[in-house]
Amino acid sequence: MRILIADDYADLSSRAARIMAGQLYLKPNSVLGLATGSTPLQMYQELVRLHKEVGLDFSEATSFNLDEYLGLAPDDANSYHYYMHQHFFSHINLPQKNIHIPCGRPADIEKECLDYDRLIWQSGGIDIQVLGIGTNAHIGFNEPDIKFEATTHKVKLDEETIEANARFFAAIEEVPRFAISMGMKTIMHAKKVLLLASGENKADAIYNTLYGGITPEVPASILQLHQDVIVLLDAAAASKIRRCLDDNNQNLRS
Ligand code: PGA
Fold this sequence. Notes:
By secondary structure, the protein is an alpha/beta fold.
Protein backbone atom coordinates (compact mmCIF):
# COMPACT_ATOMS: atom_id res chain seq x y z
CA MET A 1 0.00 0.00 0.00
CA ARG A 2 1.33 3.40 -0.97
CA ILE A 3 0.19 6.41 1.05
CA LEU A 4 0.60 9.73 -0.74
CA ILE A 5 -0.16 13.00 1.00
CA ALA A 6 -1.09 15.97 -1.13
CA ASP A 7 -0.94 19.55 0.09
CA ASP A 8 -4.61 20.23 -0.40
CA TYR A 9 -7.68 19.22 -2.40
CA ALA A 10 -6.44 20.81 -5.63
CA ASP A 11 -3.13 18.96 -5.40
CA LEU A 12 -4.91 15.68 -4.54
CA SER A 13 -7.20 16.09 -7.56
CA SER A 14 -4.43 16.78 -10.01
CA ARG A 15 -2.36 13.86 -8.70
CA ALA A 16 -5.38 11.55 -8.95
CA ALA A 17 -6.01 12.68 -12.53
CA ARG A 18 -2.39 12.06 -13.44
CA ILE A 19 -2.56 8.53 -12.02
CA MET A 20 -5.70 7.85 -14.07
CA ALA A 21 -4.12 9.42 -17.17
CA GLY A 22 -1.00 7.28 -16.66
CA GLN A 23 -3.19 4.19 -16.55
CA LEU A 24 -4.77 5.17 -19.88
CA TYR A 25 -1.43 5.95 -21.52
CA LEU A 26 -0.10 2.55 -20.47
CA LYS A 27 -3.29 0.70 -21.40
CA PRO A 28 -5.67 2.66 -23.65
CA ASN A 29 -8.38 0.00 -23.33
CA SER A 30 -8.35 0.13 -19.53
CA VAL A 31 -11.42 -0.78 -17.52
CA LEU A 32 -11.97 2.14 -15.13
CA GLY A 33 -13.92 1.76 -11.89
CA LEU A 34 -15.43 5.15 -11.09
CA ALA A 35 -16.85 6.84 -8.03
CA THR A 36 -19.19 9.75 -7.38
CA GLY A 37 -19.48 12.19 -4.45
CA SER A 38 -17.66 15.44 -3.86
CA THR A 39 -14.17 13.98 -3.53
CA PRO A 40 -13.50 12.98 -7.17
CA LEU A 41 -15.20 16.04 -8.69
CA GLN A 42 -12.05 18.02 -9.35
CA MET A 43 -10.22 14.90 -10.55
CA TYR A 44 -12.91 14.61 -13.25
CA GLN A 45 -12.49 18.30 -14.14
CA GLU A 46 -8.77 17.76 -14.50
CA LEU A 47 -9.25 14.65 -16.66
CA VAL A 48 -11.63 16.64 -18.88
CA ARG A 49 -8.97 19.35 -19.17
CA LEU A 50 -6.33 16.75 -20.11
CA HIS A 51 -8.73 15.35 -22.72
CA LYS A 52 -9.40 18.77 -24.24
CA GLU A 53 -5.92 20.24 -24.01
CA VAL A 54 -3.55 17.32 -24.52
CA GLY A 55 -5.83 14.77 -26.14
CA LEU A 56 -6.12 12.25 -23.30
CA ASP A 57 -8.02 9.52 -25.12
CA PHE A 58 -10.86 7.51 -23.61
CA SER A 59 -12.09 6.02 -26.90
CA GLU A 60 -10.95 2.49 -26.10
CA ALA A 61 -11.71 2.58 -22.37
CA THR A 62 -14.64 1.04 -20.50
CA SER A 63 -16.11 2.26 -17.23
CA PHE A 64 -18.07 0.75 -14.35
CA ASN A 65 -19.46 2.97 -11.62
CA LEU A 66 -19.57 1.80 -8.05
CA ASP A 67 -23.17 2.48 -7.18
CA GLU A 68 -26.53 4.15 -7.75
CA TYR A 69 -29.44 5.15 -5.55
CA LEU A 70 -32.41 2.85 -5.86
CA GLY A 71 -35.56 4.57 -7.07
CA LEU A 72 -33.94 7.43 -8.98
CA ALA A 73 -34.30 7.68 -12.75
CA PRO A 74 -31.16 8.44 -14.79
CA ASP A 75 -32.35 11.99 -15.49
CA ASP A 76 -32.96 12.75 -11.80
CA ALA A 77 -30.47 15.48 -10.84
CA ASN A 78 -29.47 13.47 -7.74
CA SER A 79 -28.85 10.21 -9.55
CA TYR A 80 -25.30 9.08 -10.13
CA HIS A 81 -26.13 8.62 -13.82
CA TYR A 82 -26.81 12.35 -13.98
CA TYR A 83 -23.69 13.23 -11.97
CA MET A 84 -21.41 11.17 -14.18
CA HIS A 85 -22.82 12.54 -17.42
CA GLN A 86 -22.82 16.11 -16.19
CA HIS A 87 -19.33 16.12 -14.70
CA PHE A 88 -17.47 13.69 -16.89
CA PHE A 89 -18.94 11.59 -19.66
CA SER A 90 -20.48 14.43 -21.67
CA HIS A 91 -17.05 16.13 -21.89
CA ILE A 92 -14.85 13.20 -22.99
CA ASN A 93 -14.79 10.61 -25.77
CA LEU A 94 -15.66 7.49 -23.78
CA PRO A 95 -18.13 5.65 -26.03
CA GLN A 96 -21.64 5.47 -24.56
CA LYS A 97 -21.73 1.71 -25.10
CA ASN A 98 -18.69 1.31 -22.84
CA ILE A 99 -20.25 3.18 -19.90
CA HIS A 100 -21.82 1.11 -17.11
CA ILE A 101 -23.66 2.37 -14.04
CA PRO A 102 -25.96 0.16 -11.96
CA CYS A 103 -29.61 0.77 -12.84
CA GLY A 104 -31.49 2.68 -10.13
CA ARG A 105 -34.85 1.28 -11.20
CA PRO A 106 -34.20 -2.31 -12.21
CA ALA A 107 -37.14 -4.55 -13.10
CA ASP A 108 -35.37 -7.41 -11.35
CA ILE A 109 -32.75 -6.33 -8.83
CA GLU A 110 -31.20 -9.77 -8.37
CA LYS A 111 -30.67 -10.04 -12.10
CA GLU A 112 -29.30 -6.49 -12.33
CA CYS A 113 -26.70 -7.31 -9.66
CA LEU A 114 -25.67 -10.60 -11.26
CA ASP A 115 -25.51 -9.06 -14.73
CA TYR A 116 -23.38 -6.16 -13.43
CA ASP A 117 -20.77 -8.47 -11.93
CA ARG A 118 -20.85 -10.65 -15.02
CA LEU A 119 -20.23 -7.65 -17.28
CA ILE A 120 -17.25 -6.58 -15.16
CA TRP A 121 -15.86 -10.07 -15.38
CA GLN A 122 -16.48 -10.30 -19.16
CA SER A 123 -14.71 -6.98 -19.69
CA GLY A 124 -11.56 -8.51 -18.19
CA GLY A 125 -11.95 -6.99 -14.72
CA ILE A 126 -11.38 -3.49 -13.41
CA ASP A 127 -7.84 -2.20 -13.98
CA ILE A 128 -8.11 0.72 -11.58
CA GLN A 129 -10.92 1.42 -9.12
CA VAL A 130 -11.34 4.95 -7.79
CA LEU A 131 -12.87 5.09 -4.31
CA GLY A 132 -14.02 7.85 -2.03
CA ILE A 133 -14.64 6.99 1.60
CA GLY A 134 -17.54 7.75 3.93
CA THR A 135 -17.10 9.19 7.42
CA ASN A 136 -18.08 5.68 8.58
CA ALA A 137 -15.40 4.20 6.28
CA HIS A 138 -17.88 2.86 3.74
CA ILE A 139 -16.60 2.41 0.20
CA GLY A 140 -19.14 2.37 -2.59
CA PHE A 141 -22.28 2.02 -0.50
CA ASN A 142 -20.87 -0.86 1.55
CA GLU A 143 -21.91 0.26 4.99
CA PRO A 144 -20.34 -1.04 8.24
CA ASP A 145 -21.31 -4.63 9.03
CA ILE A 146 -22.03 -5.68 5.49
CA LYS A 147 -20.24 -8.91 4.82
CA PHE A 148 -16.87 -8.58 3.14
CA GLU A 149 -17.77 -11.30 0.66
CA ALA A 150 -20.64 -9.42 -1.02
CA THR A 151 -20.68 -8.91 -4.79
CA THR A 152 -22.97 -6.28 -6.37
CA HIS A 153 -26.07 -6.09 -4.17
CA LYS A 154 -28.90 -4.03 -2.73
CA VAL A 155 -27.89 -1.96 0.31
CA LYS A 156 -29.81 -0.19 3.05
CA LEU A 157 -28.07 3.13 3.67
CA ASP A 158 -26.83 4.05 7.15
CA GLU A 159 -28.33 7.06 8.91
CA GLU A 160 -24.82 8.60 8.89
CA THR A 161 -24.64 8.25 5.11
CA ILE A 162 -28.16 9.63 4.64
CA GLU A 163 -27.25 12.64 6.76
CA ALA A 164 -23.94 13.16 4.95
CA ASN A 165 -25.61 12.99 1.53
CA ALA A 166 -28.62 15.14 2.48
CA ARG A 167 -26.56 18.19 1.44
CA PHE A 168 -27.21 17.29 -2.21
CA PHE A 169 -31.01 17.04 -1.76
CA ALA A 170 -33.71 19.64 -1.03
CA ALA A 171 -34.63 17.79 2.20
CA ILE A 172 -33.26 14.81 4.10
CA GLU A 173 -36.54 12.94 3.50
CA GLU A 174 -35.74 12.93 -0.21
CA VAL A 175 -32.51 10.96 0.20
CA PRO A 176 -33.18 7.40 -1.01
CA ARG A 177 -32.90 4.80 1.75
CA PHE A 178 -31.60 2.06 -0.53
CA ALA A 179 -28.93 1.76 -3.18
CA ILE A 180 -27.33 -0.79 -5.46
CA SER A 181 -23.59 -1.09 -4.96
CA MET A 182 -20.63 -3.12 -6.05
CA GLY A 183 -19.76 -5.28 -3.05
CA MET A 184 -16.48 -5.54 -1.24
CA LYS A 185 -15.66 -8.69 -3.18
CA THR A 186 -16.18 -6.90 -6.50
CA ILE A 187 -13.99 -4.02 -5.32
CA MET A 188 -11.26 -6.33 -4.00
CA HIS A 189 -11.04 -7.96 -7.45
CA ALA A 190 -9.93 -4.67 -9.01
CA LYS A 191 -6.30 -4.91 -10.07
CA LYS A 192 -5.44 -1.53 -8.60
CA VAL A 193 -7.31 0.69 -6.15
CA LEU A 194 -7.01 4.47 -5.84
CA LEU A 195 -8.58 5.59 -2.55
CA LEU A 196 -9.12 9.34 -2.25
CA ALA A 197 -9.95 11.27 0.90
CA SER A 198 -10.09 14.97 1.52
CA GLY A 199 -10.90 16.96 4.63
CA GLU A 200 -10.68 16.70 8.39
CA ASN A 201 -14.01 14.84 8.62
CA LYS A 202 -12.36 11.84 6.91
CA ALA A 203 -9.34 11.72 9.23
CA ASP A 204 -10.85 9.15 11.65
CA ALA A 205 -12.09 6.92 8.85
CA ILE A 206 -8.63 6.97 7.26
CA TYR A 207 -6.91 6.22 10.54
CA ASN A 208 -9.25 3.28 11.24
CA THR A 209 -8.92 2.00 7.68
CA LEU A 210 -5.14 1.99 7.64
CA TYR A 211 -4.18 1.34 11.25
CA GLY A 212 -7.17 -0.38 12.84
CA GLY A 213 -8.15 -4.04 12.69
CA ILE A 214 -9.60 -5.54 9.52
CA THR A 215 -13.31 -5.73 10.27
CA PRO A 216 -16.62 -5.32 8.40
CA GLU A 217 -17.39 -2.55 10.91
CA VAL A 218 -14.76 -0.52 9.07
CA PRO A 219 -15.48 -1.62 5.50
CA ALA A 220 -12.46 0.08 3.90
CA SER A 221 -10.11 -1.77 6.29
CA ILE A 222 -10.21 -4.80 3.97
CA LEU A 223 -8.05 -2.77 1.59
CA GLN A 224 -5.13 -3.59 3.91
CA LEU A 225 -5.25 -7.00 2.23
CA HIS A 226 -5.32 -5.73 -1.36
CA GLN A 227 -2.03 -6.11 -3.22
CA ASP A 228 -2.03 -2.76 -5.03
CA VAL A 229 -3.61 0.21 -3.28
CA ILE A 230 -2.72 3.88 -3.57
CA VAL A 231 -4.16 5.97 -0.74
CA LEU A 232 -4.12 9.60 -1.82
CA LEU A 233 -5.00 12.05 0.95
CA ASP A 234 -4.90 15.75 1.47
CA ALA A 235 -3.19 17.04 4.59
CA ALA A 236 -6.47 17.36 6.52
CA ALA A 237 -7.57 13.77 5.83
CA ALA A 238 -4.07 12.61 6.77
CA SER A 239 -3.99 14.55 10.05
CA LYS A 240 -4.63 11.50 12.27
CA ILE A 241 -2.21 9.17 10.53
CA ARG A 242 0.67 11.65 10.48
CA ARG A 243 1.92 10.40 13.82
CA CYS A 244 1.89 6.78 12.69
CA LEU A 245 3.75 7.72 9.51
CA ASP A 246 6.29 9.72 11.53
CA ASP A 247 6.75 6.75 13.92
CA ASN A 248 7.23 4.40 10.96
CA ASN A 249 9.84 6.68 9.45
CA GLN A 250 11.52 6.94 12.84
CA ASN A 251 11.64 3.13 13.06
CA LEU A 252 13.09 2.89 9.58
CA ARG A 253 15.78 5.42 10.46
CA SER A 254 16.73 3.82 13.80
P1 PGA B 1 -17.81 12.34 -0.59
O1 PGA B 1 -18.43 10.91 -0.36
O2 PGA B 1 -16.78 12.20 -1.64
O3 PGA B 1 -18.97 13.17 -1.04
O4 PGA B 1 -17.24 12.79 0.72
C1 PGA B 1 -17.60 9.80 -0.28
C2 PGA B 1 -18.41 8.59 0.06
O5 PGA B 1 -19.41 8.71 0.80
O6 PGA B 1 -18.05 7.50 -0.39
